[in-house]
């Protein structure tokens, strides 16, 4: 087991060692940190249903050249049995309409969910609504733990196709807290 003093002795410094000691269990478990710097922690969450437009994505597996693969798409959240959300995504690709769905199971923390995984060996995915006003925008952070890495995805959702600049700024700020760069951003062309 790692101790704070063994990390300091290894030349990491006391603050780095303390940070690693406090966050390593969360990283290893694939859980979203409960407090994201610069964003208020949700103290309650309304099980708001309805349609959202995906206005921006960022992630450590996205590259700027993937922009052409992303068409504008819609995400529909439906509350089932007053406990879990059925999420249905719809995207047009040329003359074809692609649809995919999954279920979100709430955790004990407001606005935090685990994606229901089917089958054995499925990757764990934790999803957190970082900030929302329920009527205009939502920022969502997703962490999926695979056998070799943690896949980070940040989504900017809107109730219509246009958002005020300050909402986009919040999206950029959240992506930076996840060590993503402008090369990890993709925005659908909504013209």
Automatic annotation (TrEMBL):
<keyword id="KW-0325">Glycoprotein</keyword>
<feature type="signal peptide">
    <location>
        <begin position="1"/>
        <end position="30"/>
    </location>
</feature>
<keyword id="KW-0732">Signal</keyword>
<dbReference type="InterPro" id="IPR002345">
    <property type="entry name" value="Lipocalin"/>
</dbReference>
<keyword id="KW-0813">Transport</keyword>
<dbReference type="GO" id="GO:0036094">
    <property type="term" value="F:small molecule binding"/>
</dbReference>
<dbReference type="InterPro" id="IPR012674">
    <property type="entry name" value="Calycin"/>
</dbReference>
<dbReference type="InterPro" id="IPR000566">
    <property type="entry name" value="Lipocln_cytosolic_FA-bd_dom"/>
</dbReference>
<comment type="similarity">
    <text>Belongs to the calycin superfamily. Lipocalin family.</text>
</comment>
<keyword id="KW-0964">Secreted</keyword>
<dbReference type="InterPro" id="IPR003087">
    <property type="entry name" value="LCN2/LCN12"/>
</dbReference>
<dbReference type="Pfam" id="PF00061">
    <property type="entry name" value="Lipocalin"/>
</dbReference>
<dbReference type="GO" id="GO:0005615">
    <property type="term" value="C:extracellular space"/>
</dbReference>
<feature type="domain" description="Lipocalin/cytosolic fatty-acid binding">
    <location>
        <begin position="49"/>
        <end position="190"/>
    </location>
</feature>
<keyword id="KW-1015">Disulfide bond</keyword>
<protein>
    <recommendedName>
        <fullName>Lipocalin/cytosolic fatty-acid binding domain-containing protein</fullName>
    </recommendedName>
</protein>
